[in-house]
Amino acid sequence: MDRTKKFGRNAMFLVLCVLSLAFIAPVLVVLMNSFKDQFSISSDEAFHFPTGDTFVGFQNYVGGVEKTDYWNAFGCSLSITVCALAVIVLFTSMTAWYVTRVKSRYSSALYYGLIFSMVVPFQMVMFSMSKLANMLHLDNPAGLVALYLGFGAGQAVFLFSGFVKSIPVDIEEAALIDGCSPIQEFFLVVFPILKPISITVAILDAMWIWNDYLMPYLVIGSDYKTVPIAVQYLQGGYGSKDMGAMMAVLVLSIIPVVVFYLFCQKYIIRGSVAGAVKG
């Protein structure tokens, strides 16, 4: 039996290694090609390591940053992502606490309405959403943050609700006895306990918002370029593309979200599992 378990573990480890390589390989290809010349990327050399003839140093990075106005796009993406994460975590945590603790038809309808929004594809509502955003003058970064709150509320409330159920009600009742108002109770007692799941929600939404192309393109267009929108400006007329600069900008756009994920990844499993068991 022990030998069978050992063989099963080794087989599973091998399968996971192969899957990891399959996911990492495209990223490595992009990284390698960001240091090659244009001709090498478009030929059979695309899957080879840079050599003396194909290596161009940081030329693609310098060209990509200049052509896309990368740092302005980076600042726009960063401000939108940070603001959207702040409002999503704040408002959805309060909503989840309300619908979990207050049992009424209204709270139940609100909860199931948010859950239903998770299964509605964005493509189904994107044209009506962009038209409505234009009518309400939400076609700007601040309006985009409000739209991200709407589209991210379903998943966030679902995760927060599962975690709130694991918080003993006695803690909240003790805070009320000590004279806390409901607002004080939430921010002084409940919200600090929600730290693990708050970070989990922030990580998941940060990767979504930072890499999102379709919603910023439909809502704010080229007036405020985010990083994914800036990348498309490396495509010229008649289908010509500066592949070297594009690969370089893609690498630069990947780095922030990967660093953020690696720094906070331990909270994903901790936050998800903590809300699965009621304490």
Keywords:
2 domains, 0% strand, MetI-like fold, 279 residues, globular, mainly alpha
Please, could you describe this protein's structure?
The longest helix is centred in the N-terminal third of the chain and has 32 residues, at 2-33. The protein has 14 helices and no strands. With 279 residues, it is mostly helical. The chain has helices at residues 2-33, 38-41, 59-68, 70-101, 105-118, 122-135, 141-164, 169-177, 182-193, 195-211, 214-219, 227-231, 243-264, 266-274.
Layout of helices and strands:
Blueprint: H1 2-33, H2 38-41, H3 59-68, H4 70-101, H5 105-118, H6 122-135, H7 141-164, H8 169-177, H9 182-193, H10 195-211, H11 214-219, H12 227-231, H13 243-264, H14 266-274
Helix pairs in contact: 1-13, 3-13, 4-5, 4-7, 4-10, 5-7, 7-10, 8-9, 10-13, 10-14
